[in-house]
Design goal:
This protein is about 80% helix and about 0% strand. By secondary structure, the protein is mainly alpha-helical. The chain has one domain. It is globular.
């Protein structure tokens, strides 16, 4: 396959991945108010494990995935990454289901710049002046949200922090994307399955006691994690980081548009916050483009 064909396929996969992440709020909004974010998150993780078992089994990747359990250092790192990604999934589900989608989108706009800061702290990466300015603008945006708007953007910061730390951990562990995700879901399986059983025994679960449409949505939760992550992993191996860095803005942009569609109001103070974040992202994107060319 020619390099152009590989990059074209990678670009299409990246577009599909971030579009799926962008419209993910529609999945959460499909649930009635009686279904909570915790139950949805439990089922998303449980059914992701099922999807990965089938996928790895048919592709011959189950052996390499299981082999990871023989490496204590890999398992310890993946255990930590599991904690952070579970927090991320739960907070995002709560935000999408409780009219905090605007702040969730802000978190994913902040995330690329937060990753830059984490690279300096944990990976000792050196930054250009453009990236320092980009991180500074993002910090001003967060301060604006605290001082002018009057409250810290806890949802946004939690999402950016948890996903950023998750990215650092996964970058430093010797495990492929799909195999690593399989180990993460296995490690979290006792908590997830125990939580589902507990909810059902309390009469608050909806997989046994719910109507068929809710059951179908809960089962589909596995694809909402596995599908975009698989597409993303496929794309990341085929296109430059600069291309991926620009395409990733599709997801929070779509989330923000959906927030407005669902009736969430954007105050002037929040718009100023977004303005600083977007300016930082523009500088960050310019620096990626400058280095590539």
């Amino acid at each position: 396959m020619s390099p152009d064909s590989r990059e074209r396929q990678g670009t299409l996969a990246a577009l599909a991945a971030f579009m799926l992440w962008g419209i993910m709020p529609l999945y959460f909004r499909a649930f009635p108010a009686s279904v909570g974010a915790l139950e949805v998150t439990f089922h998303r993780i449980a059914w992701t494990l099922g999807v990965l078992l089938l996928s790895l089994g048919f592709s011959g990747g189950l052996g390499p995935a299981l082999a990871l359990f023989r490496n204590p250092r890999v398992i310890a790192t993946l255990f930590l990454s599991t904690v952070f990604i579970a927090i991320n999934w739960l907070v995002y589900a709560w935000a999408a289901m409780n009219a905090h989608l605007t702040e969730a989108s802000l978190g994913y706009f902040i995330n690329p710049l937060f990753n830059v800061a984490l690279g300096v702290v944990f990976l000792r990466e050196r930054l250009s002046i453009w990236r320092w300015l980009a991180v500074g603008l993002a910090a001003i945006g967060v301060l604006n949200q605290i001082i002018i708007v009057g409250k810290p953007p806890w949802v946004a910061l939690t999402l950016a922090f948890s996903f950023g730390i998750y990215g650092v951990l996964r970058k430093t562990v010797a495990a492929e994307a799909r195999e690593g995700l399989f180990v993460e879901t296995v490690l979290f399986a006792p908590v997830v399955i125990g939580g589902i059983i507990w909810l059902e025994l309390q009469g608050n679960g909806h997989f046994i006691h719910g109507i068929w449409t809710i059951k179908a949505l809960l089962v589909a939760g596995g694809l909402t994690i596995a599908a975009p992550l698989t597409l993303f992993a496929f794309a990341a191996r085929r296109i430059p980081l600069s291309t991926l860095g620009v395409i990733q803005y599709i997801a929070p942009s779509a989330q923000l548009l959906l927030a407005i569609y669902f009736g969430e109001k954007l105050t002037l103070g929040t718009l100023v916050t977004f303005g600083f974040i977007w300016a930082g992202l523009a500088l960050y994107t310019f620096d990626l483009w400058r280095k590539r060319n």
